[in-house]
Write a structure and sequence with these properties.
Layout (H helix, E strand, L loop, with lengths): L6 E8 L2 H7 L12 H17 L4 E4 L16 H16 L3 E4 L13 H19 L5 E2 L8 H9 L4 E2 L6 H16 L21 E2 L5 E2 L4 E2 L4 E2 L2 H14 L1 H5 L3 E7 L13 H6 L7 H16 L3 E2 L2 H10 L8
Parallel strand pairs: 1-2, 1-10, 1-11, 2-3, 4-5, 5-7
Antiparallel strand pairs: 6-7, 8-9
Helix pairs in contact: 4-5, 7-10
The protein binds zinc ion (ZN).
């Protein structure tokens, strides 16, 4: 049963196309300027949320907003300006911009506190410079946290992390893909991470260090992932069989990736990536219609809040949170 205060939060990780080539151990032939994630995925999500009247949280990798000459990921200054404008338009449309780190290193959680701190501080400085709004949310690359990373997140001024996907089936699938890549000599740049994290709480909690964690939703049935890429893979059957289970959840925090609204017909998507990333074969319009169905159905009877709003409300209330 839904309670009157139940919310739905939606968020989008803007992981540039180069990270997908990296995960699959492939050589990236796409220039930063022709990145389909930034060129197509991000504007399509903004349009989808405008049509649905929803506010979301965008987790931005700050090096995507910085030129290579300044240590960032983008060669062309015009492209830097264009992306910064796009990020500003998120805030103007009522969305939250949060940090997905500066460099999006999958091994960030294993680095020294000093290195992590430098990465996170740089990210919030850039995102603040671009948006003019203090950045108070963080999502770890690859869903991996560590005590040093949690300390650095708090030190960067964040009041929440939304980094945990408590889904054992997701991690088993990920580890199998990594194992397959290693066996055929194309090792993934992703890392195994914390073995226990898939089994942790599905509801908000505080880390031992005090930082608020807003986990991503999973479907109660087997804790299947309730994230955009899987909505695509579940297809129409997901709407019939899985959505009713997810609808029962009081806590809803749905994660998408900007690549979820990119397909094989978009410039910058190569055949070898499509063969590794099967959701790219589903057309953008079909994915758009699936996402619309999931979101409209799940939003019924709930208030739509950005993660920042959720975190502020939890902080103000006497909401009892367990510690893990
Ligand atoms: Zn990411």
């Amino acid at each position: 049963m839904l309670a009157s205060g139940d919310t739905i939060s939606v968020n989008v990780d803007i992981d540039a196309i180069r990270f997908y080539y990296g995960i699959h151990g492939l050589t990236n032939c796409t220039s930063p300027e022709s990145d389909p994630v930034w060129n197509f995925g991000v504007p399509r999500f903004l349009k989808l949320f405008a049509e649905l009247g929803m506010s979301a949280t965008f987790f931005v990798v700050a090096s995507d907003l910085v030129s290579m000459s300044d240590g960032g990921a983008v060669q062309d200054l015009t492209e830097v300006k264009r992306r910064r404008q796009l990020v500003r338009s998120m805030v103007a449309q009522g969305h939250e911009v949060a940090s997905h780190s500066f460099g999006h290193s999958y091994a960030l959680s294993r680095k020294s506190f000093q290195d992590i701190n430098a990465d996170l501080q740089r990210a919030v400085d850039i995102l603040y410079e671009v948006t003019g709004v203090p950045i108070i949310g963080f999502r770890a690359p690859g869903y991996n946290l560590s005590p040093s990373l949690i300390d650095a997140i708090e030190k960067s001024g964040a009041i929440y992390s939304s980094s945990r996907l408590p889904s054992p089936p997701y991690f088993v699938a990920k580890w199998l893909v990594m194992l397959k890549g290693a066996l055929i000599g194309q090792p993934s740049r992703s890392i195994i991470g914390e073995i226990a994290s898939p089994f942790l709480s599905r509801r908000p909690y505080r880390h031992r260090e005090g930082l608020l964690e807003l986990p991503m939703s999973v479907i109660p049935l087997l804790r299947l992932p309730a994230i955009g890429t899987f909505f695509t893979l579940y297809g129409d059957r997901g709407i019939d069989w899985l959505l009713p289970h997810l609808k029962q959840e009081n806590w809803l925090n749905l994660e998408f990736h900007a690549i979820d609204l990119v397909d094989r017909s978009d410039a910058g998507v190569t055949q070898n990536l499509v063969s590794r990333q099967p959701d790219l074969s589903t057309s953008m319009t079909q994915k758009q219609s699936l996402f619309t169905n999931w979101l409209l159905e799940l939003a019924q009877g709930r208030s739509n809040q950005t993660l920042k709003e959720v975190a502020n409300n939890i902080d103000r209330s006497s909401y009892h949170l367990s510690k893990f």
